[in-house]
Amino acid sequence: MTRRLNLYRLSVLAGICLLFLLLAVMITNLVSQIQGLSRAAGDNTQWSISQIDTEFANLDAVLTDQVANATYSEADIRLRIDIALSRLNIITSGRSAEIFGESQQAAELIAPITAFADRTIAVLDEPGALDNQDMVQLQQEVRAVRPAVRDIALLGIRLGAERSEARRAQFADQLIWTGSTAIALLLLMAVLMVVLDRLLLRAAKRDAELSASSKQLSSTVAASLDAIVTADVDGRIIGFNSAAERVFGWHRDDIVGLTMEETFIPHRMRDAHHNGMRRYLKSGQPRVVDAGRVELAALRKSGEEFPVELNITTAKNGEDITFIAYIRDISERKINEQKLIDARDRAERTDQAKSQFLTVMSHEMRTPLNGVLGVLDLLKTTPLNEQQSRYANIATSSSEVLLAHVNEALDITRIETGNLQLTLQDFRLTDLMQGLIDMFEPLAQEKGLSITLDIEPAMRGPYNGDPGRIRQILTYLIGNAIKFTDQGGIVVSVTGIHGPNDTSLRFAVADTGIGIAPNDHEQVFEDFFANAPTEGRQARGDGLGLSISRRIARAMKGDVTVNSVKGEGSTFVLSLSLTRGETEPDTAAEVIVENRAVQRKCSVLIVEDNTINRSVLSDMLHSMGHSVDEAVNGANAIERAKTTAFDVIFMDISMPIMNGIEATQHLRSEGGLNANTLIIGLTAHGREEYRAQAVEAGMDRFHTKPIRLDALHSVLSEVSSGQMSKLDSARYPEALTEMIWLLGADKVQSTADAFFDEIVDLCAQLNAREVDADQVALAEAAHKAKGAASLLGQSELEAILLDMESQARAAILTEPSMWARRLDAEKSASQTRLNAMLRDVAQSP
After folding, report:
1. Residue among 620, 843, 810, 640 nearest 728 (CA)
2. How many helices (H) and strands (E) does the chain have?
């Protein structure tokens, strides 16, 4: 503010100086003009010029008189010539020359006169006295030059008059300009006086504001919750507010004058502080000063070291520098932050421990369950009386319930760790839903309940998704509906809305059971929440079903919701968006049944570290008539495989010394008797955790423990019948390898031939169509072919058909012939790859 005021004052002073300067210039010009006019008034230059004509006339008269009387007075003649020539010098120099200036006319007139003067002087300078001839010559010369003399005299008078008139006009202009400038200067002085008055008023107002601001700032500093400390360039404290007294424990009167180094900077930091101050004062480069907020340590008067948040700024007054430090005690904040960090770490450790516990327990519980279920399956194959058979069925059912609980715990672990994987495939919605109803109908009939399935005709599918997870969710929902309903029935309905490619499906399970209170609508989806009837009957369950169902649904971009009224029943809704797909007739079950009819004795190696599981599986295989050898780990299995060729190897994944993945890699890479033997991986963990590793290692199939008797029959039937294909799943699409395992190479070959014939027909349709043809029909044809391409694992063709379908549905598909060429080229490449794969299968042992 002071700088601006000084600038204003300097501007006013400069203006006043300028006024005086202009005034001095005007006065000087005016005096100069007056003096010029005075000189012009007293100047006889014009008279002197006019006299040249008179003198030449006198000279002419004298010469004429003497020539006529023949009396010559040389002295009189010379006098008159000298006077005439002197007049000539007057007009060619001095003020007369200024009058003529550079006038061309004057120069032309003066030239003959000057020539006359030169000739006359030459005559006069000749030796001897002037004679009559000289007199006559001079007379003629004078008479010849007199017209020029007369003209130069008249020209001088005229030019002198014009010059005088110009000076008078210039003087008048100067008077006008001087008067105007004087008036303007007076006005400017008046304005400057007004401005100066305003500046004085503003300065007075600013002084008042600064005084008030200073008082306010002093009050703010005094009332600040942060410590504010000011120091000079030597680090001596010159300001210390009340908050600083509270933070550091020093009284202001005691600390002012002391240095920061000897008061509140910790001993271990004093050298760094001293060097930093010296560096800043020398180079001006800040590290802490003017560097924003930093966290450091400070020292109280009591010697206690504590954390502070520090912000140091500088203020300059001329050459003097003042350091201003804003200091905040963050001890309490740091304590709270550490508490939060400790709490977070404990929560993370607890969550990790829980996930690890669930994973380990699911594995450890599944392992003995493998033995229990295996023994029960074997027990059922022996002669049992009615009571023993009932006991075996009860034990089997209880084991299966326990296995379901283990699977639930494993699902939660997968979901929380982000390892839940979805297996997308085409499936028939009607078959899935009817299978669920057939499964639950006996249970509903036991309670006297009706169970009804209602699928909207337009929603019957088929679709592409994970049917296993959809079945899992609906199993929970239908099972709960039966569990909590004593009278009435359950209605399972499927409705939805078709989009261009996807369908939004709504699976609703409505019951007439006990209902759920409004406050519990969201709680039922929490872990371990069990809704017990008010009558006192506690329904069985671990409270994880609905929680897992919602999590799985949301992993599939859907959701599970509930609408219920206490005492009037509940409706649980699974909402999903699925891509419409194409499926082939499900003949897998028929193939398996046919395969079971053909049996031959197989040589089997069981690689399992758990004695009970190994024994149960061995007994199962022996009961089926197969020869069995055993190994306790991967290394042991490799040794057995060196000397014996096996038809099938059941390989546990997790084993000591060498696990199943490593053992499989070794068997596949080292060659030998069992390099191409069918290897089936077994694990008590979930399939998703190890599937990719198992396929990459070279396992042909992958199974989750416990492997039941029916599954063993299916696998060994395929091997004994010679229809088990040993496919390299890392080289070929998984969907295609599974299809070959189920249907056989011949069936897949015929299906593939039909598919490629459809592609040929589609190319023909494209070549025959125009750009503006019916694109809806093209979209439907592409969609149908895309489903078959997906089923056969032809991803390249599937991608082209998907692009074509999308553009056709948006009515933007152009150049059908170009699409035909793309499809035909990829069809040829895909057909070549597929035929090569099927040849590999046909040639495999």
Report:
1. 843
2. 25, 17
Asked if residue 513 lies in contact with residue 491, where contact means CB atoms within 8 angstroms, the answer is no
Q: Are 325 and 229 in contact (CB under 8 A)?
A: yes
Contact 45, 96 (CB under 8 A): yes
Residues 224, 58 contacting (CB under 8 angstroms): no
Strands 603-607 and 559-565: unpaired
> Looking at the predicted structure, is the pLDDT value of residue 114 above 90?
no
Task: Supply the pTM of this predicted model.
Answer: 0.37
User: Which H helix or E strand runs over 757?
Assistant: helix 745-768
User: Do residues 64 and 78 make contact, with C-beta atoms less than 8 angstroms apart?
Assistant: no
- The pLDDT score that the predictor gives to residue 591 is 39
**CA-CA distance, 512 to 532, in Å (whole number)?**
16
C-beta of residue 243 within 8 angstroms of C-beta of residue 225: yes
Range from 341-345, 489-493, 656-660, 812-816 carrying the lowest mean pLDDT = 812-816
Once rounded to an integer, what is the mean pLDDT over residues 634-650? 90
At 510, the pLDDT band (50, 70, 90 cuts) reads: very high
Contact (CB, 8 A) for 762 and 792: no
Residue 459 near residue 495 (C-beta atoms within 8 A): yes
- Burial of 528-560, coded b for 16+ CB within 10 Å and e otherwise, reads eeebeeeeeeeeebeebbbbbbbbbbebbebeb
Q: Are strands 227-231 and 237-240 parallel, antiparallel or unpaired?
A: antiparallel
Closest CA to 112 of 137, 89, 76, 145: 145
d(Cα 738, Cα 729) in Å, to the nearest integer? 9
Per-residue DSSP letter, 259: B
* 3-state class (DSSP) for residue 607: strand
Q: Residue 586 has what pLDDT?
A: 42
3-state secondary structure of 296: strand
- pLDDT for the residue 593: 39
682 three-class SS: strand
Q: Is the Cβ–Cβ distance between 511 and 570 less than 8 Å?
A: yes
Closest by CA to 83, choosing from 54, 118, 43, 50, is 54
d(CA 228, CA 246): 11
> Other CB atoms closer than 10 Å to residue 201's CB: what's the count?
10
pLDDT of the residue at 731: 47
Mean pLDDT throughout 435-451? Answer: 83
Distance CA 400, CA 541 (A): 14
Q: What is the largest CA-CA distance in the chain?
A: 199
Judge whether 314 and 324 are in contact, CB under 8 Å.
yes
Q: What kind and span of H or E run contains 551?
A: helix 545-555
Say whether 129 sits in a helix, a strand or coil.
Answer: coil
767 close to 759: Cβ distance less than 8 angstroms? no
| Closest alpha carbon to 641 in 659, 664, 618, 610 | 664
Instruction: Return d(Cα 704, Cα 697) in angstroms, integer.
Output: 17
Ordered DSSP codes for 410-475:
HHHHHHHHT------EEE-HHHHHHHHHHHHHHHHHHTT-EEEEEE-GGG---EEE-HHHHHHHHH
- How far apart, in whole angstroms, are the C-alpha atoms of residue 631 and residue 560? 46
152, 91 contact by CB (below 8 A):
yes
Cis peptide before 656 (omega within 30 of 0): no
Token couple for 443:
């249970």
Give the tens place of pLDDT for each residue, 664-685.
Answer: 998 888 888 888 888 888 876 6
Give the separation between CA 155 and CA 49, rounded to whole angstroms.
Answer: 9
- Looking at this protein, which amino acid is placed at residue 193? M
Inter-residue contact 269 to 249 (CB < 8 Å): no
Helix residue ranges per DSSP H, 588-708: 588-597, 611-623, 634-643, 660-670, 687-697
Contacts of 319 (CB under 8 A, 6+ apart): none
In the predicted model, is pLDDT for residue 366 greater than 80? no
Average pLDDT, the chain: 76
C-alpha 593, offset from chain centre: 58
759 closest CA partner among 836, 834, 842? 834
